[in-house]
Write a structure and sequence with these properties.
Elements (H helix, E strand, L loop, with lengths): L1 H14 L9 H10 L16 H8 L3 H15 L11 H14 L3 H8 L3 H16 L2 H4 L8 H12 L4 E11 L19 E8 L5 E9 L4 H6 L2 H7 L6 E3 L10 E2 L7 H13 L3 H9 L10 H20 L23 H14 L2
Parallel strand pairs: 1-4, 4-5
Antiparallel strand pairs: 1-2, 2-3
Helix pairs in contact: 4-5, 5-6, 5-7, 6-7, 7-14, 9-12, 12-15
Main location: cytoplasm
Cofactor: a divalent metal cation
GO molecular function: hydrolase activity; metal ion binding; nuclease activity
Length: 354
């Protein structure tokens, strides 16, 4: 019987010379002899370190990481423990280390004692799970009462009726492939995505729009956003503050270009209340946002995930990193000021800054 099977296999091989699987028993023996054994490295418990150690590597304390694990666990937990599957704590710490360091994947893998493929899959899984929580942690005008939000802004420099500060920041990315590569080249001549954010007085992000290439102007992003439609229809009582790149609107106040005496006081309060350090704080917390070596779509996902994590850190009072001085892009406006917006701005100067 065995001889007949060998004859049949030999005939099958001759009839199908391009069959991939080797059927020769001697070859199978050699293959088993030289098969590389899978090696599972020892993995340390990432939470078995003091908070200072965890903060430097993950920007969260042990309690903060456990909180994230409870939030993300139902979405990212492996169904089985086959092949030494990562625990929820290990997956969260892998993603946090990448967000915080912005290093190459193999560098993150070396630090976490994992291979590059595992790192890539883990970061993607955790990133999407965090992004799914955006509607929970990023809410306009904020998680507090509207009157409390206005009061917090007013305490900064005496600017009344403010419910948010809007601005855009560029997230550098690698040059994307395809016909639309030039769309991602911004005015500074590097590839980026242009991300709009609205923040409150505590640097908590209340709105984020991450989907536009770097060549798109700030004011065009704002006019196409959902928050613009809500404000223009009067759904919120209050105003946003924006820089000179935006046209002055009844719901968006901008500084004067050539201010007089009373207008200078308005401009000074306006500049202090805009809270531009939010971008610096976000990028100091998550260094990956200085440059992402991923496609534009994945760069947008990572940016939203970092915004969610930033809000979690702010709401939980996690330690804030040192913020470097912000860079002024001096973005010129492309849309003119609205007459009703200029009239409201003049009333602010007359009533509050004269």
């Amino acid at each position: 019987m065995k001889a007949q099977n060998c004859v049949f296999l030999s005939a099958l091989t001759m009839a199908c010379p391009f069959v991939r699987d080797v059927v020769d028993e001697e070859a199978l023996v050699l293959r088993r002899a030289f098969r590389r054994e899978r090696v599972f490295r020892d993995r340390l418990d990432p939470l078995a370190f003091p908070d200072d150690h965890l903060y430097e590597r993950y920007r969260f304390s042990a309690d903060g990481i456990r909180y994230l694990c409870r939030l993300l666990g139902p979405r990212i937990k492996h169904r089985t423990a086959r092949s030494h599957a990562l625990s929820v704590e290990q997956m969260v710490c892998v993603a946090l280390r990448f967000f915080v360091s912005g290093a190459f994947l193999y560098s993150v893998g070396d630090a976490e004692q994992l291979n590059k493929a595992t790192i890539c899959r883990t970061i993607r899984s955790v990133c999407l799970a965090i992004k799914a929580l955006a509607d929970v942690f990023i809410s306009f005008p904020g998680h507090r009462r509207l009157c409390d939000i206005k009061e917090e802004f007013y305490r900064i420099a005496g600017f009344p009726n403010v419910i948010g500060a809007v601005d855009c920041t560029h997230i550098r990315i690698k040059a994307p492939s395809g016909a639309h590569e030039a769309d991602f080249v911004n005015r500074k001549s590097f590839h980026s995505i242009n991300v709009q954010m609205v923040c409150n007085a505590d640097c908590v992000i209340s709105n984020v729009v991450a989907k536009w290439p770097g060549s798109v102007h700030d004011s065009r992003i704002f006019r196409a956003s959902e928050i613009y439609q809500c404000l223009s229809q009067g759904e919120f009582s209050g105003v946003l503050l924006g820089d000179r790149g935006y046209g002055c609107q009844p719901f968006l106040l901008t500084p004067f270009t050539d201010p007089q005496e009373a207008q200078q006081a308005y401009n000074h309060a306006h500049a202090r209340t805009r809270v531009e350090m939010t971008f610096g704080l976000l990028k100091a917390r998550f260094h990956c946002l200085h440059k992402l070596r991923v496609s534009p779509v994945r760069a947008c996902d990572i940016t939203v995930a970092c915004a969610v994590l930033h809000n979690v850190a702010c709401l939980r009072k996690e330690r804030a990193p040192r913020v470097p001085p912000a860079m002024d892009w001096d973005n010129p406006a492309i849309f003119p000021d609205d007459d009703s917006g200029r009239l409201l701005r003049d009333q602010y100067v007359l009533n509050y800054f004269s």
